[in-house]
Write a structure and sequence with these properties.
2 copies of one chain form a homodimer. By secondary structure, chain A is α/β, with parallel strands linked by helices. Chain A has 13 helices and 14 strands.
């Protein structure tokens, strides 16, 4: 069998492969990116299954519409109106099989082989994978502490056939960094001059445990703004529910065609259940609990780093989300550290898969949401011993 | 915004667009392809939700493996061993977001722009859509009453860069036709001479209400056999669960990479629930009830056609599944009939979207699974009045 060029180019998930090694019982793993399972509202979701079936019967089990369950889209639109002041309506919202599928659909409808995609460097691995299927040219733009490097962004925008910019403005994966208000405004101004879409992927935005929420970069301002959201980090990832918000109707129509061809529609059972959950529970209170949990875990990791890490290892201090990003300023390759760390039974993700143009990097991603403060301290201590 | 060539080429679902017109209350619609909702085992699935959560807790709600829930894959493998005598194991089974996604993933990993795909003419619209995203060259091979035309198949196989053949061997969509035992053997012999994959998409195979089950064309025989199955027609389509069975490990590995990039993994909540349902209920008895239901509906449609249709309209007599295919031997275009039929408040799908190389055809697809025998009779009577 001869396989397609696109699949031969697409990296299999480095992280998923790493997880196979790091999943051993006695390893302390900061490698995953999983929400803490104690944050799942299991009892409430179970009640919502019952209630949704009682009210809607066979409609939970039948084929359904490609754009998604209307009341769920209305709920999402109302929330973005209320919380973010955006002029969005149910027809601007499109439900996807997790926001991973949103990335894949956007690539499909916008990218011809060789077209340009501007991506944060380092950037979200899942996005790199999804976009690679369309065989694009990646233009990496350095992610600084307050957002994209503006000069590099302008230069990248002047490259031929650039279709979109992909950003994670809040508590970015992998770095935990958040774009500043000033950078957001500057980026919006720059992007407005070009015929490109601006994707803001915001799965973590609600999980802010420090500082003030900031307005989006382009949503509500740029004609070709695409906002992505997800229920994976605040309700449940297992049900694979994400969404796209955009006012560009032509784009949404193409996305609908691509979605029909990809999986017809998103699991409608889960759409009914999540909608019922959102309509019947105090979601804000629920999210507050997750925030308190993650703040505690993030504090534990930062405190341990402060105590144990040598001075040549720098790290980010996230205001929310799930990740801390560390840099070995002495240039030690993260892959070397990884191998030694596995001997010490502690794991993380070496930075390499998050770059489209660099290898053997001296950075690493550490997740703090899936271990207790005590275990986090012990893991960081072990890791520090080999840095 | 400039959109990709692939999406501009991909037809949006003709059927889904038609459904918007035909969904009016007073229209008798044979246009859909929906299972009868009374066939969904709602109470048993509801009990399985409860039981699966009680037993497995947060695992239903967390991220999960890309290839799918192991016990579900084991169940499927054991069933194909038992029922079809195939030497398949859990590792040969890969869970997808409905079998629509299986089609899309296979296209992704095998097709470069311009590569050949051999497809039944007429063929399944969802497959045409999914494959079109990879910009292939379609080689249509006439589907005769007993399967593909063998001369056309050989000729198509000799075209450059043909990657696979797509078939629906049992109660095909759209025609309701089933490949004969002889044709299956002849096709297997022919295909064995070429380095191509043979896809057998079999969502309806269990819904046989007449005749004897037949062995697959290539499964268990051809090295590059790909068998597709689904729970959409026998349990519930709303949960979007399909699967791929193949012994080709390299192919499965590429499919895993494509799936990671597409939606990470299939809804794990639904995988636990469907597995629990299968393990806790008499599935065979359940399917028998659907078969009795559909046989009754199929009989009603065939009887009414016999009574009301003019002699120049021929139609297939399916041994199972969900569809009858009618041909206006006087050459009347189905699209003309469709417009007149809508005036009579009866709907069907004109044959056009099922062909990759013909338009304005004189064929139409009629679904009988979603109306009572009385309504079917009335609908066919109305339709006959304009034929």
């Amino acid at each position: 069998m001869q396989y397609s060029e696109r699949i031969l180019k697409t990296p299999s998930s480095f992280i998923r492969n790493i997880l196979k090694v790091t999943d051993a019982e006695d390893v302390i793993s900061f490698a995953g990116g999983l929400p803490n399972p104690i944050s799942f509202p299991i009892d409430a979701l179970r009640a919502s299954v019952d209630h949704a079936i009682t009210v809607n019967g066979s409609r939970l089990f039948q084929y359904s519409s490609t754009q998604g369950y209307a009341p769920l889209r209305e709920y999402i639109a109302a929330k973005y109106q209320r919380v973010h002041g955006l002029d969005v309506h149910a027809d601007d919202v499109f439900i996807t099989t997790g926001s991973q599928q949103a990335l894949e659909l956007i690539g499909k409808v916008l990218i011809n082989k060789g077209d340009g995609i501007i991506i944060e460097e380092p950037g979200y691995l899942g996005a790199i994978q999804a976009f690679t299927l369309t065989e694009p040219t990646f233009h990496g733009v350095t992610l600084e502490n307050d957002g994209l490097n503006l000069e590099e962004l302008e230069r990248a925008l002047q490259q031929p056939n650039v279709k979109f910019i992909y950003t994670v403005p809040n508590f970015q994966n992998p770095t935990g960094l958040t774009y500043s208000k000033e950078k957001r405004e500057q980026i919006c101004e720059i992007v407005a001059k070009y015929d490109v879409a601006l994707i803001e992927d915001d799965p973590y935005g609600e999980l802010r445990f420090q500082g003030e929420p900031l307005p989006y970069i382009g949503a509500g301002k740029l004609e070709n703004s695409i906002l992505l959201g997800s229920f994976s980090k605040t309700v449940t990832p297992g049900m694979r529910l994400g969404f796209i918000i955009t006012k560009n109707k032509e784009l949404l129509q193409h996305i609908e065609t691509a979605k029909q061809a990809s999986d017809l529609h998103t699991n409608i059972f889960s759409q009914y259940v999540i909608y019922d959950y959102l309509a019947s529970n105090d979601y804000t209170e629920h999210v507050k609990k997750i925030i308190a949990l993650y703040k505690n875990q993030s504090d534990a990791m930062l405190d341990a780093m402060q105590e144990f890490f040598p001075a040549h290892v720098e790290y980010t201090r996230p205001e929310g989300g799930m990740f801390i990003w560390a840099t070995m300023k002495d240039g030690t390759p993260a892959l070397d550290v990884f191998n030694k760390a596995m001997e010490q039974k502690v794991a993380f993700v070496p930075g390499d898969p998050f770059y489209t143009s660099k290898t053997n990097v001296n950075t690493m991603r550490l997740n703090y949401t899936n271990a207790t403060p005590e275990v986090i301290r012990e893991g960081i201590k072990r890791l520090a011993s080999i840095l």
